[in-house]
Amino acid sequence: MRILIVEDEIDLANAVKKALEEEHFAVDAVHDGESGLLYARSVPYDAILLDLMLPKLDGWAVLRELRTSVKTPVLILTARDALRDKVHGLDAGADDYLTKPFALAELLARLRALIRRAAGQPAPVLRMRDVEIDTAAGLVRKAGEPVPLSAKEYALLELLVRHRGKLVTRAMVFDHIYDEEADALSNVVDVHVSRLRKKLGPDLIETRRGQGYIIHV
Amino acid sequence: MFRSIRGTLLAWYGAILFLVVAGFGAAIYLKMQHSLREEVNAKLQARAQAVAAAVVAPADGPLRVQPTDEVKRYFKKYYNARGEADDEGVDPYFVVWDGAGEVAAQSNPQLEVPRPEAPPPKRGLRSPRGRDRDAYREVFVAGPGDSIVLVGQDTRRFAARARNFLGVLLLAGAGALALALLGGWFLTARALAPIARMSAAAADISATNLSRRIDAARTQDELGRLAHVLNATFDRLEAAFQRQVRFTADASHEFRTPLSVVIAHAELALKRERSGEEYREALATCLRAARRMQVVTDGLLVLARADACELDIAREPVDLRKVVEEAAGLLAPLATERHVAVHLDLASATILGDRDRLQQIADNVLSNALHHNREHGRVDVSLRRDGSWVLLAIADTGCGIPAKDRPFVFERFYRVDKARARDRGGVGLGLAITKWLVESHGGHISFVSDEGAGTTFTIRLPLPWESAEAMEPFVTDAET
Q1: Is the same domain home to B291 and B327?
Q2: Residue B278's domain is classified under what CATH number?
Q3: Chosen from B244, B246, B253, B257 to mutate, greatest number of chain A CBs within 10 A
């Protein structure tokens, strides 16, 4: 899952970025409205965290521009706590609203819920045969036994399971599990897939040469 | 006594109207009664004269009445058995006494009429003598041969007529009064309705609904003017209230942002075991955020004390030139860092004030000029006298203040460029505090800004009286 943070308070953006990365998210952080809009339009993020008081272009304007073309769920993260601001924010096209100061745990839970809803899969636990992904805890079990996965392996597995029955292209994998700073080699995905096969069974993930990967229902 | 203007108005209106109607009624009634009586008197007198003229007093015989046509017409019932009613429907009667006081002739023998005590007036006198006996009005005149001729009439019918008339008067008066009061009730209701509407509108305008106004478009009258005055008051109230709301929101924003930094970093650091480097970094970030909150708290405290008039401003002689030089010295590293040249052109000027506060003024304005300057720009600081004032002007070559921001520059938490101000730890209280400090010294701060070319802040402080008198020659420092 790839997240965009638009927050001009750099210290805060860094903390949130780090916290999200520890939860297997790939995160890009920008610090003004204009870059926020540019990033949100060019990368298919799974969710956007948006501050309202931003330099260059404020949060409302970013949201308005964004909603003309982009469906990505947006969570407003702001110090403005007046009821009017919340109503205005949600009505302008935001999907959720969290006021500062907030608890990281709440931010993460809301973000996961937002992504679940956007994917049309409201259950927090995803099941594929005997494999179980607990997205809230970030844990994977096979036949009830916990399977230790690296952050990227987990993110890849979650992406494939969320799109089960559909082809997941290599480009989609790069878009959703790596942030802009990762300079991943093209074969890195194959490495993660072979590791997942080793840990979860050889026939879970099918490779379609030259196209991508698929998990059959 | 009355709880409403309407009640009071009506009570006064009713009372005055009652007096007028009652006065009119009484006058009409008395006049009518008087003229009835006059009429009766005149008729009786005419008959008495006629009877007197018909009295025959032979020297040898008793007095008798030789009725003329006129007398017969007057006393139809007595002379005419057919009994045509008298034109008044009231039968008059006459009695004639001879000189000896014996009744000589009488139209109605059943009547007991005592002989008048007083002597009748002499013939030819204009007013006859009259008397009231029970319900009878009687007039008597002197007849021939010392006789007395009396003519009387029952006046009960006239009294009844007067009573009827009084009844009609009372009824009409009461009706008129009631009608007028009813009309008054509706008129006052109409006249007072706008007041009721205004008071309802004013009651509806509360803290939550300050933007509503009383409809004043309708009238140019007294009420319309009142509505305009009230609306103007509400305008000011709303503006003050909104300033307060904005201030509270801004203050809470200034605390929430650093607070969320502290919470997020602390939470993240505590989530699992971290390396020493990570802990150090988290603590350093928390410290930065805490420092920022400290700046906000300090600024707010100063302003809160200023608002509560609890801040003491000392009044001791302070040489402003030294104060400005000190500020320039203190900020020299910043000027070097930003490659801004500072030029001082300072006259010596001693004013009465608080050294620390004046220092704060100079620091704030000079550091703003450095921060908002372009690289390799310059700042010109001049201090000179202008009559009984000292003028401190600080001109920068920065980007200027956009026209739309100019009215708000001295407002609390107002920042023209929020992102840049935060980078240097500004929270938007500096100029608000500076303005307050200048004004608490009896001075005035203003600025002229040219977008793209720079901004000049001018601070005017009053010279003490003797010092202004002395008119020392200018002492100008070389550029530093």
Answers
A1: no
A2: 1.10.287.130
A3: B257
How far apart CA B50 and CA A91 sit, in angstroms, is: 113
* ipTM at complex level: 0.79
B88 and B11 within one domain: yes
Chain A positions in Cβ-Cβ contact with residue B262 (cut-off 8 Å): 101
User: How many folded domains does chain A comprise?
Assistant: 2
Instruction: Please judge whether A99 and B256 are an interchain contact, meaning their C-beta atoms are less than 8 angstroms apart.
Output: yes
Question: Cβ–Cβ of A82/B249 closer than 8 Å?
Answer: yes
The answer to whether residues A214 and A205 touch, using CB atoms and an 8 Å cutoff, is yes
Tell me whether residue B71 is in a domain: yes
Are both B361 and B456 inside the same structural domain?
yes
Element (H, E) at B178: helix B156-204
Among A87, A119, A151, the domain boundary falls at A119
DSSP3 helix / strand / coil % (chain A, rounded to 5): 40, 20, 40
Nearest to A29 by CA among A50, A4, A47: A4
The model's pTM is: 0.59
Domain contains B104 = yes
Domain boundary among the residues A69, A104, A119 is at A119
For chain B, list residues whose CB is within 8 angstroms of any CB belonging to chain A. 249, 252-253, 256-257, 259-265, 267-268, 271-272, 285, 288-289, 417-420, 422
- B284: nearest CA partner in chain A: A11
Residue A36 in tokens:
């926020």
d(CA B150, CA B45): 9
Residues A143 and A107 grouped into a single domain:
no
| pLDDT tens by residue, chain B, 480 residues | 557 788 888 889 899 999 999 999 999 999 988 998 888 888 888 888 888 888 887 777 778 888 888 888 888 777 764 444 444 455 788 888 887 788 888 887 777 888 887 666 665 555 567 888 888 888 888 877 778 888 888 888 888 888 898 999 999 999 999 999 999 889 888 888 888 888 888 888 876 677 788 777 666 677 788 888 888 888 888 888 887 887 887 788 888 888 999 999 999 999 888 899 989 999 999 998 898 888 888 888 888 887 777 777 888 899 999 999 999 988 888 888 888 899 999 888 888 888 888 998 999 899 888 888 888 889 999 999 888 899 999 998 888 888 888 888 888 877 776 655 555 556 778 888 888 889 888 899 999 988 888 889 999 999 887 655 554 444 444 444
| Structure-block tokens of residue A132 | 């179980």
Q: What is the spatial distance between Cα B398 and Cα B181, in angstroms, rounded to a whole number?
A: 76
**Do B359 and B244 share a structural domain?**
no
3-state SS string for B186-242: HHHHHHHHHHHHHHHHHHHCCHHHCCCCCCCCCCCCHHHHHHHHHHHHHHHHHHHHH
CA B77, CA B83: separation in Å to the nearest integer?
5
Give the domain extent around A61: 2-119
Nearest CA in chain A to B420: A55
Asked whether the beta carbons of residue A79 and residue B256 sit closer than 8 angstroms, the reply is yes
Query: Which amino acid, one-letter code, is at B273?
Result: E
Q: Which of A8, A53, A102 sits opposite B260 (nearest CB)?
A: A102
